[in-house]
Each structure stands twice: as C-alpha cells, then as structure tokens.
Specification:
This protein has about 250 residues and is α/β, with parallel strands linked by helices. The protein is built from nine helices and seven strands; from the N terminus they run βαβαβαβαβααβαααβ.
C-alpha cells in the first residue's frame, strides 16, 4: 500500500517548482492533495491534472497564505473537500535577492510576509484540524548555512522558519503533531530561472561547493517531504534535513 494512503495533504505554493514536485509525489503515495496557488491557476490545475491522470485525487485552491483570512480559508476548503487534514507542507515562498544598498522596506516586508507570516498563519489554521500523527513540513533553504551575498532578507526569512519550526515542534508535540524542516540547496525551478540564478556564475559557484556536484531537481526534495509526511517518520520532529547535495 502507498505510504500516504487515506491521508489528506495541503501543499502551499504548489503551482510550480518544488511545490509542484511535492504535490505530485504526495499524490503518487496515495494522499489526496490540495494544490494551493496564489496567482497561477493554470499551473495549479496542471499539477492537479497530473495527479488525477495517475489515479490520484487533487484539487486546486487559491489563497495568499500571508493573509489570515485566505490562509484559514485554504485549510477550511481542504477539510470541506476531503473531510480531514493530515499533512501541511508550507512551501510558499518569495525568492528575491538584493544587495544591502538596494534593500527596501517593501522588499523586506514582501519576503517576511510570505515566507514567515505565511508559515505561521497556515500552521495556525491547520493545527485546529490536525490530529495525532499529523505532520507539518516547512521548506527552508541551505542559504542559511552558505551565506550567499545579496541574500540577507531572504536568508533571514529562512533562518526564521528554522527557528519557529523548532518552537512549534515542541508546542505541538503533546498533541502528537510533528513539525520538521526540509532545507533544499540550489534547485532548478521556474523561480531560480526567473531570478537569473540558473546558468549564472552564482549557480556555477554553488555547484562547485556541492559535494554531489550538481544542482537539485524538485523530485530530490519531494521524496524527502513524502517520507516526513508518512508514518515512517513517526519518531522525527524538530529536525532540519538538508536536502542539498551535501553543501554546507
């Protein structure tokens, strides 16, 4: 039997990139998947189509997780559609670099609102419905370890995700809800293409520091998330797993 058979999962920011890969992987493992998107309805519907074509169950639900009403609405829609909630993957994120001279209040607030507040709001909404064995997986970044220039605000958001995940792991442990972090290295996605990282000197430098010698792909991250979502990871909480090809 698939390891997530009978479970219901919400994946935020799942219309493309790592989120889409995670949603497809959870669907392959038997979960009913709520594919969240903020603006790319077509992308989310394509992910849903891929899951259903493979015999799975999925639905696309719009919602900006940095807004409390929409984050709570997303979770309520999942429960209304599938009757329960077992897994929350907080993947929504803004990937944006700026040199320190170019950092603005708007840049800072955009990143922290989506990357940090969004995690808190979605988790707050999901905690009402998750029961014993529930799993929350937060997507961070290896950038918290490699300290890439021009990434101060972005790295700050991911450091915050790591810290709040540890707190929530302890806070939710009495209810037997697990909270873990997956921290990807450089992954080839639409976002890293748009940011100009893929094909750049930055990519070459990161790959040169990566022991396994390549950039990651969404499926490299998705398999780790599927494991953490499953009962196979029942003794893991408060962990940060670096899915980074070994970069430190």
């Amino acid at each position: 039997m698939a390891k997530l058979e009978g479970k219901v999962a919400v994946v935020t920011g799942a219309s493309k990139g790592i989120g889409a890969g995670i949603a497809r992987a959870l669907g392959r493992e038997g979960a009913a998947v709520v594919v969240n998107y903020a603006s790319s309805k077509a992308g989310a519907e394509a992910v849903v189509a891929a899951i259903t074509a493979a015999g799975g169950r999925a639905v696309a639900v719009q919602g900006d997780v940095s807004k409390a009403e929409q984050a709570h609405g997303l979770i309520e829609a999942a429960v209304e559609r599938f009757g329960r909630l077992d897994v929350l993957v907080n993947n929504s994120g803004v990937y944006e670099f700026a040199a320190i001279e170019e950092v603005t209040e708007a840049h800072y607030r955009r990143l922290f609102d989506v990357n940090v507040l969004g995690v808190l709001l979605a988790t707050q909404a999901a905690a009402k419905h998750l029961g014993e064995g529930g799993s929350i997986i937060n997507i961070s970044s290896a950038i918290t370890d490699v300290h890439t220039p021009t990434a101060a605000a972005y790295a700050g958001t991911k450091g915050a995700v790591n810290a709040l995940s540890g707190v929530l792991a302890n806070e939710l442990a009495p209810r037997k809800i697990r909270v873990n972090v997956v921290s990807p290295g450089l992954v080839v996605t639409e976002g890293t293409h748009t940011a100009g990282v893929v094909g750049s000197d930055m990519e070459a430098g990161i790959v040169a520091q990566t022991p396994l010698g390549r950039a990651g792909q969404p499926d490299d991250i998705a398999g780790v998330v599927a494991f953490l979502a499953s009962d196979e990871a029942r003794w893991l909480t408060g962990e940060v797993i670096n899915a980074s090809g070994g970069i430190r």
